[in-house]
Write a structure and sequence with these properties.
By secondary structure, the protein is of the alpha/beta class. The radius of gyration is 16 Å and the shape is globular. The two termini are about 15 Å apart.
């Protein structure tokens, strides 16, 4: 399935994909800004950069911070451990090859769904840490994803038209104030 929509806020579209998830593993959670919005009973926010987890923005006891490298997820979690695994603005921080390997691991760990939110195409980003916690090396983008990349892997793709624009400081730094907005992708695979 492929569709295109225009929205200013991707959160309702994301939450629709996660509405029946009892447990969620969020890969590259950063400070966990979105995690309290998930309706799951248990949420694990996994991030490699410990300061993000130490400065997390959630207080709910059902959200558990995990300081680990995403490439270790198959070793850390047994198959079928979580209802859903999410990559929200994190898959682009890995090379395409690493990203596909991570998606494969996530598909083993999830019982229901894997969900990805990422810019469409390559969105250059380096020397920036949105959280101001010296995580610049982890915020650098290493890949750009197109709908076809996900469709070939069996994902349904929703294109969020013009989602990234000059209102985003990273966008302005990468493309300038006058660049046309870029799309974002929400890719979901039902397991």
């Amino acid at each position: 399935m492929y569709r295109e929509i225009e929205v200013n806020d991707f959160l309702p579209v994301l939450l629709e994909q996660l509405k029946f998830s009892e447990s969620i593993l969020d890969i590259g959670s950063g400070t966990g800004v979105l995690l309290e919005k998930y309706g799951a009973s248990v949420v694990l926010g996994l991030d490699i950069h410990r300061p993000y987890l130490l400065h997390r923005r959630y207080t709910s006891p059902h959200i558990i911070p995990v300081n680990a490298d995403a490439s270790d997820m198959a070793r850390l979690f047994l198959p079928g451990t979580f209802s859903a695994v999410t990559f929200i603005d994190s898959l682009e921080h890995f090379s395409m090859e690493q990203g596909k390997r991570l998606l494969g691991m996530a598909e083993q760990i999830a019982t229901c769904r894997v969900v990805v939110f990422t810019p469409r195409g390559f969105f250059p980003q380096e020397d920036i840490d949105h959280f101001h916690l010296q995580g610049e090396q982890y915020q650098k983008h290493h890949s750009g994803w197109e709908p076809e990349d996900f469709l070939e892997l069996g994902y349904a793709v929703t294109v969020l038209k013009g989602y990234h624009h000059a209102g985003n400081p990273s966008f302005r730094k990468a493309f300038g104030d006058d660049h046309v907005p870029l799309d974002a992708l929400l890719a979901c695979k039902t397991i």
